Amino acid sequence: MKLAIIIVSYNVRHYLQQCLDSLYRAVEGIDAEIYVIDNHSKDNTVKKLKGKNRGVKFIACNHNHGFAKANNMGIRRTKSEYVLLLNPDTIVGENTLKECIRFMDEHENAGGLGVRMLKCNGSDAMESRRGLPTPMTAFYKMCGLCAKYPTHKKLGKYYMGYLPWDEPAKIEIISGAFMMMRRTALDKAGLLDEDFFMYGEDIDLSYRLLKSGFDNWYLPTKILHYKGESTQKSSFKYVHVFYEAMLIFFKKHYGHLSIWLNMPIKAAIYLKATTALIKTTSEHIQKTLGFMPDRRRKSPLYIFISTKESISRCRSLADRNGLDAQYIVTQTPADPAAHAKAVKNISCKTPVYLVYDTGLCRYEDILNLFSKNSKPNVKIGTYSPRFNIIITDNEIIA
């Protein structure tokens, strides 16, 4: 077996199905297997999808075991040359996996590989390349110097913003949203540390791959990561889990530092977490008492770009759901001219989804169109003729 793909799912059934649909195209010609480890979802993920995806091995957990433990369940069941940890809220291009495997085959010391992750508007996600969060790198990130000087080799090390986006490069930390690893490297470095429930486990494993003598790489082949940009980072749960993960990583890898370095770093982490919690609590109270302005989300415009036959089906779905919609008919499913025309005429204040039929368009072409014509308020939308649904980063329309 060349490749084993492990997907940990939790209450993202429709995104998972789209991820699987993109994988079916991407694994053509590859000796691969796909495992879905469902962490006790409440949306009937396994029941709804198992019969529609007979080539996928589903494991239905009776508890939410967290990201690390669930991934380890899948890894232990496989014996492939390469292992890919993949988030369910992603779309991979048709050639993504082939390019990754080819690169790993050509670079024998490559232990892990990450890719160019796109946000929903086609812009690059900074998490695609990261540096090791050493005490000083973490300090530059937490105090805002990284954001102010993103391309500085020292101050911007956290996101390695000085690296070119369109060339392969050695990096230190690979995102767990798409983390391909060589089996022999994983055997030497060990599996994911299950002390991490969510967040931090990819940083820890990436570091252990480096410590084991392997290289970690960034490859500029594109994927879409839906929720990476919209995680509720102001929620109580996020603050608790994220900063707890930071403490676990620090104690594990930098606990040997002198007390003069140890204490300030711990204090900075606790201070950052406390500040985030105070801000969250304050905003919640103000909203409850009606002191904050009502920022209702403006209804988005849906622009469907496809052939006449596909547009007809999309029009029926849009009418049934009362969507504010426009339609551009083209004979080319992923037409760069039609896409550029639609983007050019859009107001910068209007939230817009450009919706493409994934039954007609290659995922790779859709990602390339948005990457070359990125605008903050214009996001990727997809229409699935197989399930007759529209998928965006915020909603499922059926």
UniProtKB/TrEMBL annotation:
This is Glycosyl transferase family 2. The keyword rRNA-binding does not apply. Pfam families: Glycos_transf_2. It comes from the Bacteria. Signal peptide: none annotated. It comes from Xylanibacter rarus. Keywords: Transferase. InterPro entries: Glyco_trans_2-like, Nucleotide-diphossugar_trans. Residues 5-188 form the Glycosyltransferase 2-like domain. One of its GO terms (molecular function) is transferase activity.
